[in-house]
Amino acid sequence: MMKLSSQSQRNIGAALASPVILVPVISIIGNIYSYASNPAMFNFEELKLVIAFSVLTLMYAYPITIVFGSISAVVLQNFGLFKLQYVLPISLIPTLYFHLRWHLSLNWLSIFMFCSLVVALTYWLIYKWLK
User: Fold this and answer.
1) 39 vs 28: CA distance, rounded Å
2) H or E segment at 85?
3) How far is CA 112 from CA 11, 17, 126, in A?
4) Buried b (16+ CB within 10 A) or exposed e, 109-119
5) How far is CA 130 from each of CA 14, 15, 111, 116, 126, rounded to the nearest angstrom?
6) Rama region for 70: left / alpha / beta (φ>0; ψ in -120 to 50; rest)
7) What is the CA angle 37-23-21, rounded to 5?
């Protein structure tokens, strides 16, 4: 049976675990925004809607992380450039591509950029932590 290298195991672990951070991050920020924008109208249905949206972001985050993020991370690691100063800007490339392709509004662009940065930071932290 073939055994994966330590670097491959850490990359797989980081790729599978890092997008999950979006669920609590988006849930907390979305609920704070919903409550701050109209506290009188905030209810349990609003809370469920924000949590459902945060779970749906995983449909965007997992494919992008596995296809683009993992490959980018391996390339950066091979060149010895897997540092946060390189990982964060490179993580914005898919978001900027989607913005140019589908002309996202600035609100959606900022949300997707924030999500990309959160996932990239989490990927980097998990990879470093699994040493």
Assistant:
1) 15
2) helix 84-91
3) 23, 18, 21
4) eebbeebbbbb
5) 9, 12, 28, 21, 6
6) alpha
7) 125
Q: Which of 16, 17, 14, 44 is nearest to 31 (CA)?
A: 44
With cut-offs at 50, 70 and 90, classify the pLDDT of residue 47: confident
Please say if the pLDDT value at position 119 is more than 90: yes
Place of tokens 């907390």: 28
Q: What is the DSSP secondary structure assignment for residue 21, as one 8-state letter? A: G
pTM: 0.91
Single-letter amino acid, residue 102: W
Per-residue tokens: 124: 């980097």
